[in-house]
Design brief:
Elements: H1 5-12, H2 15-25, H3 32-35, H4 39-51, E1 55-58, E2 61-64, H5 66-81, H6 85-96, H7 104-114, H8 118-140
Antiparallel strand pairs: 1-2
């Protein structure tokens, strides 16, 4: 049975499972003692990684699957965004202030001055597009 997206997120939400995945991804030896896990806890988490198709075993060696590489990359991307947490809070605060109406162009300028990563900017800009489409459709209807 194929793992669902929620199964993968649930598996990655566990820090110890993520540590195991990282170790396999970086081809580092896995130390159960270093992870502070019992054998049962280690193999239970490893089994979840298998069930979610994030790792496989070939020739006695654990390897990250293509899905596992992508999932690990997404987790790394989210971890990198952690440093910008307060910038996102500031952007959200601008949008939630009822007394101030900011045009889309001003909002984009503010985001460009605060957020330096182009991919993050594109995501923030594309996130607003569907809302404008919905608003214009409801007005025309």
């Amino acid at each position: 049975m194929a793992a669902t997206v929620s199964d993968v997120w649930r598996c990655l939400a566990d820090n110890k499972s993520l540590d195991i995945l990282r170790s396999i991804h970086e081809s580092q030896p896995i130390s159960i003692i270093h992870l502070n896990l019992s054998r049962k806890q280690y193999y239970s988490r490893l089994a979840k990684l298998f069930r979610c198709n994030l790792v496989y075993r070939s020739g006695g060696k654990y390897t990250v699957t293509s899905l596992g590489k992508i999932a690990y990359g997404v987790v790394q991307r989210i971890a990198a965004l952690e440093k910008d947490y307060w910038k996102f809070v500031a952007i959200d605060a601008l949008e939630s202030v009822a007394n101030i109406q900011i045009s889309d162009e001003e909002r984009k300028k503010i985001i460009c001055s605060i957020i330096k990563d182009m991919q993050t900017r594109e995501i923030l800009f594309s996130a607003e597009q569907p809302l404008r489409d919905i608003d214009s459709q409801s007005i025309d209807a």
